[in-house]
User: What shape does this take?
Amino acid sequence: MRFCLVLLAGLSLTTGAMAQSKPVPSEPAADQPSARQMALSRRYVELAQSEQMEDALRGIIVAHASVVPVDRGLTDADRRFMTDLTTELLIDLMPEMLDRLVPVYARGFSEEELSALVAFYETDLGQSIIDKNYAMMPEMNQAMLTVMPQMMDKMAVRMCARFGCDADELRGGLSGRSGPAGKPSDSK
Assistant: This one.
């Protein structure tokens, strides 16, 4: 779930930064953001939402569950229940999570940067980009998850080299698979 939130935050920040017509050097924001920075940050968080967010989150949760199974003993109905429950709870907690992002953005961006982000996301183009980011999110997440088996293989080899264990057994534990997972082609 943390990955999903980081991805959401990163996508909204990245598209805003890319939308600026020219790079504007800025000074780091103060430790204590101004009231204006807080207000602009809150507006930015509000604008970065989309009606497609729930569908995007569900797609990410389903994709993640297919790559890193929670328990192979679950029935399809149990998996659907887990997906629905995770999505529902994430959506329920989203307002609180977003509230917690407001001061983070306010401290991380200058007033000028926040004003530019808000100005952009208030446009039709800005809203279109947000909507498309949410629409593409499950597919982008699936693309990123395709490297997980390679990462798990490499992680197992390097962890066992350090801690003295059997890489095949560890691979199975890291990926949710049982038994040997085969040798990775590149262990470093």
